Amino acid sequence: MQKYQTETDRIEAKTAEKGCPQKCYDTISAFANKYGGIIIFGINEHNNFIEQDVYDVNDLQKQITALCNSCFEPKIRPEFLAVTYNKKKLLAVKINELPTKKKPCYYKNVGINKGSYVRIGDSDEHMTDYEIYSLQSYIDGIEEDLRPIKRAEFEDLNQEKISKYLVNVKKNKPNLSKFSDEKILKLNGIIENTTKEIHPTLAGMMVFGEYPQGYLPQLFIACIVVPGKRLGDLGELEQRFNDNERVEGTIEEMLDKSLAFVRRNIGTMIIIDNEGKRTDIPHYPMKALREAIANALIHRDYSFNTEGSYIYLRIFDDRIEILNPGGLYGNNHLENLGSDSILEVRNNTIIRLLEETTDIVENRHTGIATMRDEMRRMNLPEPEFEILRGTFKVTFRKEKLDMIKESCTDNCTDCTDNCTDCTDNCTDNCTDCTDNEIKVLELLRKNPNTTQVEVSKRLNISRRSVSAILSGLKEKGKIRRVGSDRKGYWEIL
């Protein structure tokens, strides 16, 4: 904290020189609701994070224990460690993340809506109504894709697809063949008839609907091509978008249409082999993009809270971004994506119906691994996954891993072998630099204000590794920091 002059998403500093801080319930709630964290009492965040004695370590521990035991729902069990650092008495309090089924943890004195917090960066923010609802719906086992669409009727489903489905399901599941068609459709989550009126479920509408957006207008994909690297960039003719399409239909139809949009807008590389045969290869692997778009359609949150939100597909000059409503479901965490861990799924009925009628989920449980493998196969950075408070984001970057080296020498034809007279555009021939150091140097050359977090995401390496690389580059005399850690920038020497 002293080095970077900041707290983190898992470390909080608080003074306790004159007594137990009046307000620390927000941090306790935030840590319990996110990834857990440590509160260090005896650090002054408003004065360069210097150490200050805790007034009474034993009493402070009792005060925190009482707070966690009586003022939170559910109760918190903190862990304590008293230490002496630079001759100052400090108390570290560890708050463990609660199991998802016990969240949200909230401060009882103000209630669940005002007393539930979540850690965002180095601050404690009130949980939104959606964040609270998503936790409660998970605990209650609410299946949003089984919700009936009251305005729609059975005739709003594609009758040809329904007939074909019934033939196949009776063939593949003989035990169902003894029931009426209506009961089969109800048992499989396609319709709901508890009120004696037949209504398609949301799952039935998104898989078999004639035109789902007639009743669910915001369940579409907004596809745009930005003439630049950021939203708001304008093209040569002052155009805001080079292409713009509202993609509608069933899940299968939207997947096909959005992939067609991507194909016509990402460009191709032309490869001529030794026999003169031409092959056009897209700049991004289509298999990876297909998996990402399919995941957005299948795993988005379809609850009332997000019914007004759509999926966003954005093509920039240097990347493609896919954003869908809803964070990771249940106990899923970013670090488990693509691993052998068993992931929970949000829309079980949609997934099952797609399994029975399409090939969209044929790579079930291997989609993330497929994305990574396909990007690596084309020598592109692995996809980046982020959770942005109710939104899940996937980013595919266009810059090849070896492009950094190539761009270094493009405008540096007079460099010597050892690169003793290189300009800022040339780092490739610095023989004492590692590959990662070269990549970091190029990122800093392009943007001297690049943060360690941004470098970590771009190169898909840990922040600790980034810090070590920067330290190594400073020792080698390749870079220096101008200004403070927080507001300064990197200068390439």
Tell me what the structure shows.
About 5% of the residues have low confidence. β15 and β16 form a beta hairpin. It is built from 15 helices and 22 strands. The longest helix is centred in the middle third of the chain and has 15 residues. The protein is of the alpha+beta class and 493 residues long. It has 4 domains: 117 residues, Schlafen, AAA domain (Methyltransferase, Cobalt-precorrin-4 Transmethylase, Domain 2); 71 residues, no CATH class; 163 residues, 2-Layer Sandwich (Heat Shock Protein 90); 90 residues, Winged helix-like DNA-binding domain superfamily/Winged helix DNA-binding domain (Arc Repressor Mutant, subunit A). Helix content is 32%, strand content 19%. The protein is flat, with a radius of gyration of 27 Å. The strands form 8 sheets. A 6-stranded mixed sheet has the order 14-13-17-18-20-19, covered by helices on one side. Strands 1-2-7-6 form a 4-stranded mixed sheet. A two-stranded antiparallel ribbon has the order 3-4.
CATH domain class name of the largest domain: Alpha Beta
Q: Name the shape in a single word.
A: flat
Q: Structurally, how many domains make up the residues? A: 4
**Main beta sheet, described?**
6 strands, mixed
Structural class: alpha+beta
How would you summarize this macromolecular structure in one to three sentences?
This protein is an alpha+beta fold.
Write the layout of secondary structure elements.
Layout: E1 11-14, H1 25-33, E2 37-41, E3 43-44, E4 50-51, H2 57-70, E5 72-73, E6 79-85, E7 88-95, E8 106-107, H3 111-115, E9 117-120, E10 123-126, H4 129-140, H5 159-172, H6 181-187, E11 191-192, E12 199-200, H7 202-208, E13 221-225, E14 243-247, H8 251-265, E15 268-272, E16 278-282, H9 286-299, E17 311-315, E18 319-325, H10 348-357, H11 367-377, E19 384-387, E20 391-397, H12 403-410, H13 435-446, H14 452-459, H15 463-475, E21 479-482, E22 489-492
Parallel strand pairs: 1-2, 13-17
Antiparallel strand pairs: 2-7, 3-4, 5-8, 6-7, 9-10, 11-12, 13-14, 15-16, 17-18, 18-20, 19-20, 21-22
Helix pairs in contact: 7-10, 8-9, 9-11, 14-15
